[in-house]
Amino acid sequence: MRKKAAYKRWSNGAWIDLGSNSQLNSEQYQNNITLQNRGIAIVRQILEDYDDGTIGVNLVFEGTDNDFEDLQNILTLYFPEKEYKITCTRDDKRLISADDAAQEIESIFAKMEQTFEENPSEELQAEIDRYKKTVKSTVTVCILGTYSAGKSAFINALIGEENPALRIRSVYSNNLSCSHGTGEQDQVRVQDAECRTELLEHGL
User: Fold this and answer.
1) Are 180 and 198 in contact (CB under 8 A)?
2) Residue 180: phi, psi to the nearest 5?
3) Angle of helix 35-50 relative to helix 65-78, nearest 10 degrees?
4) What tens digit of pLDDT does each residue of 150-184 get?
5) Rounded-to-5 percentages of helix, strand, coil across the chain
6) What is the pTM of this model?
7) Disulfide-capable partner of 149 in 137, 145, 153, 161 (CB 3.0 to 4.6 Å)?
8) Which residue, among 32, 93, 18, 86, has the nearest Cα to 62 in the 3D structure?
9) How many Cβ atoms sit within 10 Å of the Cβ of residue 108?
10) Distance in angstroms (rounded) separating the CA atoms of residues 94 and 98
């Protein structure tokens, strides 16, 4: 999930804007970023702007638990205590993650669904079905490729283990070619390996 980041500095007992000259106000540090892809660069820029090499910096983070964990991991791996004077703490304000929000919504909906079942309605059932289809956690994906192109190897790498169900023999299907015309009487035709042509749609 891409997010927008905001930065402030502590001065005279209050958080204030960084100022127009700070690189942290630029597009690359604010819009469409995640800690995973820009976290290291963000910390380096903060050090360049505010650390003179003697006092260090204290980062006060406001965000989700997952993002705070990511930031701590970045500091541990790339900014070890022996070389950098960086402390990182949480702000009192905490943001809920999308996953946590989805679980909360699902819990509320489950209670509402029970009420709907006690008062059946085709219209309500249609809305329930549409909601369940929208928020379902699984997505069907079709992976296509020529014989021995590495489809199974790709799936195994994706899931992190070898799936025995992928050990299947090669099979062949008819080659299909599609063509369509242009103009007012557009037609879509499919021709198989035996040169049989079928009109699928016309008058598009």
Assistant:
1) no
2) -145, 155
3) 60
4) 888 887 787 777 766 656 555 555 555 555 555 55
5) 40, 20, 40
6) 0.52
7) 145
8) 93
9) 10
10) 13
